[in-house]
C-alpha cells in the first residue's frame, strides 16, 4: 500500500485501504489522515466518509462523525 501510494500519490483507493487497515489496528489518528487524504483527492467516495466517521467516533467527535455519515448517505443517493 505504501508503495502504491509512493508510485501513484493520487491513487485514492490506496488511501481508503490504508485507512481501513489503520482502523482495524486501532490507529485512529493514522486512519483519519489517510481517509481525509482520500476525500481530498475525491469527494465522491461514500466509503471514505463512513470509515472516517469511525475514526471520529473513536475520538468522541460525534458531530463530525454524524456529518460524515450524512455526506455518505447523500453520495449513496439516500
Topology:
Layout lengths: L1 H6 L4 H13 L3 H14 L4 H13 L3 H15 L2
Summarize the structure.
By secondary structure, this protein is mainly alpha-helical. It has helices at 2-7, 12-24, 28-41, 46-58, 62-76. Helix 2 packs parallel to helix 4 (46-58) and helix 3 runs antiparallel to helix 4 (46-58).
Strand content: under 5%
Sheet/helix structural class: mainly alpha
User: Can you count the beta strands?
Assistant: 0
Shape: globular
Mean pLDDT: 90
Percentage of residues assigned to helices: over 70%
How far apart are the first and last residues' alpha carbons, in Å? 31 Å
Sequence of secondary-structure elements: HHHHH
In DSSP terms, counting alpha (H) and pi (I) runs of 4 or more, how many helices? Answer: 5
Poorly predicted ranges (pLDDT <50, ≥5 residues)?
A: none
CA-atom Rg in angstroms: 12 Å
Largest sheet: none
How would you describe this structure to a colleague?
The chain is mostly helical. The protein is built from 5 helices and no strands. The protein is globular. 29% of the residues are buried.
Index terms:
78% helix, mainly alpha, 78 residues, globular, single chain
Amino acid at each position: 500500500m505504501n508503495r502504491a501510494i509512493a508510485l501513484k500519490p493520487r491513487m485514492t483507493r490506496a488511501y481508503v485501504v490504508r485507512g481501513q487497515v489503520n482502523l482495524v489496528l486501532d490507529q485512529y489518528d493514522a486512519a483519519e489522515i489517510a481517509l481525509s487524504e482520500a476525500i481530498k483527492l475525491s469527494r465522491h467516495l461514500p466509503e471514505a466518509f463512513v470509515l472516517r466517521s469511525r475514526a471520529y467516533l473513536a475520538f468522541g467527535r460525534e458531530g463530525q462523525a454524524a456529518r460524515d455519515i450524512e455526506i455518505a448517505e447523500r453520495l449513496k443517493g439516500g
